[in-house]
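Minutes, structural biology subgroup

Action item carried over from last meeting: produce the structure token record for Ribosomal protein (Gossypium anomalum). EB confirmed the sequence was re-checked against the source entry. Recorded below for completeness.
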Amino acid sequence: MSKLQSDALREAISTIVANSKEKNRKFTETIELQIGLKNYDPQKDKRFSGSVKLPHIPRPKMKICMLGDAQHVEEAEKIGLDYMDVEALKKLNKNKKLVKKLAKKYHAFLASESESLESKVNETKAMVKFQLKKVLCMGVAVGNVAMEEKQIFQNVQMSVNFLVSLLKKNWQNVRCLYLKSTMGPSNRIF
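Output recorded by EB:
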């Protein structure tokens, strides 16, 4: 059972989208869900980690690099994906500086598999990860201002329901939920 009010959420989403249209930015703002937790001790209680695939891709411009053999490199080339073959990876092997530089350049890496590469890329772009570390707050990208409000709404609902299912006492562990765009003010939705 979701305690999230649909009306309040829809209102917050339309406010965010309207605010972003007022100021013309040179990039597409990401809409982020910020979560504050309560009655949770990261020292004692089990820290959780989980990924959920959202119905709509929140970050279409996410940078993904494909690591693979010749066949997958060709496939990556076809769909305009950055790639590295096995030989290039071997060169990086011992050089920590180059490895770090590579890791910072991309949001995600895919290793070659037998599955269709395009569907894997879309699946990776639609994934969001919830991970509780030492602090009781976290944020995840749930959409961007170029998306339809209905799509953002579905993404937010799915993210929140998944997060609540990870929590020990479900909604009793949620202190607050905010929705905000990259440069905009935050809107409380719970």
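Discussion: The two ends are 14 Å apart (CA to CA).
Next step: EB to file the record with the rest of the batch.
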